[in-house]
Amino acid sequence: MRPTVHDLAQSAGVSLATVDRVLNNRPGVKASTRSRVEEAIARIGFVRDVAAANLAKGRIYPLTFVVPSGDNSFMVSLRHQIEEAKTRSIAERTEIVMVEVPAFDAEALVAALRALRNDPPAGVAVVAVDTEEVRRELLALKASGVAIVTLVSDLEGFDRDHFAGVDNLAAGRTAGSLMARFLAGKTGRIGVIAGSMLVRDHQDRLIGFRERLAEINPSLVILPAEECHDDPHRVDAAARRLLAEAEGLVGIYNLGAGNRGLIAALSLMPSGPRPVAIAHELTDHTRAALEGGVIDVILNQDAGHEVRAAIRVMKAKSDGTPVIAAQERIRIDIFLKDNLP
Amino acid sequence: MRPTVHDLAQSAGVSLATVDRVLNNRPGVKASTRSRVEEAIARIGFVRDVAAANLAKGRIYPLTFVVPSGDNSFMVSLRHQIEEAKTRSIAERTEIVMVEVPAFDAEALVAALRALRNDPPAGVAVVAVDTEEVRRELLALKASGVAIVTLVSDLEGFDRDHFAGVDNLAAGRTAGSLMARFLAGKTGRIGVIAGSMLVRDHQDRLIGFRERLAEINPSLVILPAEECHDDPHRVDAAARRLLAEAEGLVGIYNLGAGNRGLIAALSLMPSGPRPVAIAHELTDHTRAALEGGVIDVILNQDAGHEVRAAIRVMKAKSDGTPVIAAQERIRIDIFLKDNLP
DNA sequence: CTGTTAGCGCTTTCAA
DNA sequence: TTGAAAGCGCTAACAG
């Protein structure tokens, strides 16, 4: 039988209450008594039963997700996954609140975070815009004991508890590799469509893409990125322009959202060889485009995994429990039409 | 406050014991009383607290993994992950036993499974060889209430509770796609190395690979698969033969284990264009080969994920709790040197 | 067939 | 600074 608090109390020659005080390092224990208990813990190999502790405490984990509003497919799916997680709240002892703020709006984000100060949750998961103010606000929360998880987009050099998202530089490099390999030495122009170069993820993807493409096949000409703000209409227009104007457009990479526009433009092309098309995020639209051969590769981050990982990490951090690092790492999924889930 | 058994008992006008009986559908409750309680459950929205139940029951989940012995890197890593899981046993209330049986040895497997009959665990996860006897043995365990999870390799049409592994037909198709796309219309010969054509996984991979390659570029000639029984030395020899003999060997696919042999053979090639090389399972060796450009693509199944999924599913099945399907699905990971974890 | 009562391992008043 | 005792939500004897 694994030792319990009773065994521990007996073994240390103190009462249950004292054991509990030491275990939860609460004040009011003489240093000598404390060390006597700690010694006993080591001696009998006591490991505290978190489930029992949570039961006794009636503990639930109040967790807040702060995410962008708007109808970008990926964010829609992220929010959907948060709703799904709410479904599991009773079983997982969580109480999840989702706060939506306008995308790319630092002030709104700051306000939302500040509002959490009054009644701080156990953890905050946030799709962060990177400004000084945002960092300050998150730091303040962290200082008051809130576990901070950055979601999807990380804050460079910021001491969050965890990042639940992918390495976008690596994602860009992966796109570059696949583009170059699929073109196998061919030369020509590559069109790039981005959301906004003000967002870190997109910057990183572009940098990685260019780097890798240049490494493998420097003869390819990468056209300047078209910023379409994740808007399908603008993506559509930009893609048409690229396809019509660029002589020898052999590849096209949409590193942002708005794939519906890309798919529409590609689908309208006259038959004949299509450029290699690579985009991000698996949605109903991109899945259909992959299956139909309109898009060749989809790079994906699993929103469900991100949300579940964020929750597990916030809970773990909030009670000092270890996390399984490999489990919480978010992969850069590469989907061809052949390995769709 | 969420309703408890007390509320339920009161609301149904019965005692705690009766509530408990219907909750765990134990016998000895009049049908009318039972329905009265069930009604109350629905009325007040009672959801049972599994953690508290487990505490009261002192419940632990005895789980048995039956896996092949031998030094194939993937199986080594699978066993390592099982050991890792043991590490978490106290927290997860599991008691994990790992039984090793010689690879591909149906009789030994049957014997190992039969031995579980005396004291059946809550769940069995097994890397199964597909024979009638094995199926019969697993069915018998299932009939006595044991949750059955097939690991890595599934049993076609068998009613297991879950399969924790990848779709190998899809994996083969993915390999075929990548091979064809990387070769971009080039013609030539493709060498294939397999472990054993008696194993379902390998059959499936080969079928998928051929199919897909033929669809995309029928001019490629796929050489007959060399069966090397996952042995690095034999793989090495086979690869050398292929590289030396085959005029215009443009690609090589190892769908089995023994990648050390493949890597050795490729590394010894005179400089000049190498064939596109695709293999399975990310290990220290294949990682280094990817990084060094010796291998182009590694398809992977995450052994850690498989083990964790198997455990979660066995626990869930064993107490009738739902599983999060998307979380337990094992992906076909595609690794290039750019997106290594 | 149904109910009473004493726990599971830990926390939390309330006294001392 | 310490301890005794009641209780978290559920289960399990043991009586009736």
Automatic annotation (TrEMBL), chains A, B:
List the SMART domains. HTH_LACI
Pfam families assigned to the protein according to its UniProt record, in alphabetical order: LacI (PF00356), Peripla_BP_4 (PF13407)
Q: What keywords are annotated for this sequence in UniProt?
A: DNA-binding, Transcription, Transcription regulation
* SUPFAM superfamilies (UniProt xref): lambda repressor-like DNA-binding domains, Periplasmic binding protein-like I
Which InterPro entries would you find in this protein's record? HTH_LacI, Lambda_DNA-bd_dom_sf, Peripla_BP_I, SBP_2_dom
HTH lacI-type domain boundaries: 3-57
One GO MF term on file is: DNA binding
Kindly provide the name given to this protein in its UniProt entry.
LacI family DNA-binding transcriptional regulator
Lineage of producing organism: Bacteria, Pseudomonadati, Pseudomonadota, Alphaproteobacteria, Hyphomicrobiales
